[in-house]
Amino acid sequence: MKRKEAEFLESVLYPLPAIVLVSVMIYLPFVLSGYYSFTKWDGITRTPSFIGLDNFISIFSGGSDFFKTLVFTFKYTVFFMIFSNVAALALAIALVRKFPAANILRGMFFVPYIMSMTIVGFIWRFIFSSGFDTLFMTTHLGFFNWSWLGTADLALVSIVIVGCWQALGFYIVLYIAGLEAMPRDVIEASIVDGASGFTKLRRVMLPLLAPAISTCMFMSLTNSLKIFDIILALTRGGPAGSTYSVTLGIYRDAFQNNRYGLGSAESLVFFIIVLVLTQFVMKIFRSEDQ
Fold first, then answer.
1. Domain 65-289: which topology?
2. Which of 31, 191, 197, 232 has the most CB atoms lying inside 10 A of its own CB?
3. What DSSP assignment string belongs to 186-244?
4. Rounded mean pLDDT, 237-262
């Protein structure tokens, strides 16, 4: 009995610090955010005033810019998922070949991923402004003289470019792992059967890469939905508020406009949207893997 009691105490006490930490850092703020979503609070007064569903009514009736930021976030998510995965897969296929500089190039592509996204944003902000001006004066190529951060469409393109550049190395590593895990005999059999490069890629390699593709697509989905740092460093939501993501919009409403109740309601709605969307995407990829 003493041994069983000791094992029981160990099974309770060992995970207890982690449970307390996670509860304090994640679950408790989530519950408090749900409470504040039903209140009007500026973050300064001692007691928030309960207003019921007014914050949610404001969101769905157009009283806030939530759906405008949601549209921008979805646009960025679609472009980011497509371009980052296509580019990462193409580069992984090239880098998995044996040539002298392969390992060096792998490391070079991975370096931006370990950098702070805020630093990456400031670096590219300098490139899009001063760097492109210098290149235009040197090469006289017209696209270097475009207002990359000053027009809405080009600002979206700029953010997608920076986001893909920063995250590319991570997805390349995952695709290289999937390519190197492929059975060589299947690839060699397709070559013997006369499959061309594109046919081998479409009929043999992509089906074998299904688990890696599912992982990369899901990771790119979750990373793009919560984009915040790069936009804050690059455009700060401009021009004219056209590049506000949902997370940056929540930050603006809660911490800049002191509308903590509205910000909490927006975060709760966005949490439900992300939960439904990720479950839907996981179900699709799970059925394709099978």
1. MetI-like fold (1.10.3720)
2. 232
3. HHHHHHHTT--HHHHIIIIIHHHTHHHHHHHHHHHHHHHHT--HHHHHHTTT-STTTT-
4. 93
